[in-house]
Amino acid sequence: MATTLFTRIIEGEIPCHKVYEDPQVFAFLDIGPLAPGHTLVIPKHPVERLEDLSEDSAAALGRALPRIARAVLAASGAADYHVIQKNGASAGQVVPHVHFHIIPKFTDQGLGVTWKPGELSSDDGRTMAAKIVERLA
Which of 38, 45, 97, 99 is catalytic? Predict the structure, then answer.
């Protein structure tokens, strides 16, 4: 994988406001925050998409995310927050390196989300569930 902006941050080429680091995970404040405390959490091993993570990197992120979220909430004073992770340009991913946004939510700041749910018929649900289960085997 090509060197990304985040790889350069991990390597110290680009300065950041680091908030957490362990052997597999790095976290720092977003330079274009949606709210105070907006933090990016990334694996040190660079992969572009979530499904490309090794099990070890995924587990390390899973252990670090709750700890970092608790710290962001305590430091920012927010009671609520979003965790956002995007995969691919059409999903809004800008930097091709897996990253999670922890975005505190205040009444007047943070991420606004419009959710337009569709409908899932029994037949469509059964068919899609079977396809997913087959690929998990």
Answer: 99
For 98, the domain range is: 5-136
CATH of residue 116's domain is 3.30.428.10
- Is 99 catalytic? The answer is yes
Q: Are strands 100-105 and 39-43 parallel, antiparallel or unpaired?
A: antiparallel
Cα–Cα distances (Å) from 42 to 1, 98, 128, 133, in that order, read 15, 6, 31, 28
Ramachandran region, residue 92 (left: φ > 0; alpha: ψ -120 to 50; beta: rest): left
Residue range 8-65, pLDDT digits in tens: 999 999 999 999 999 999 999 999 999 999 999 999 999 999 999 999 999 999 999 9
Domain count, the chain: 1
Q: What does the alpha-carbon distance between residue 82 and residue 73 come to, in Å, rounded to a whole number?
A: 11
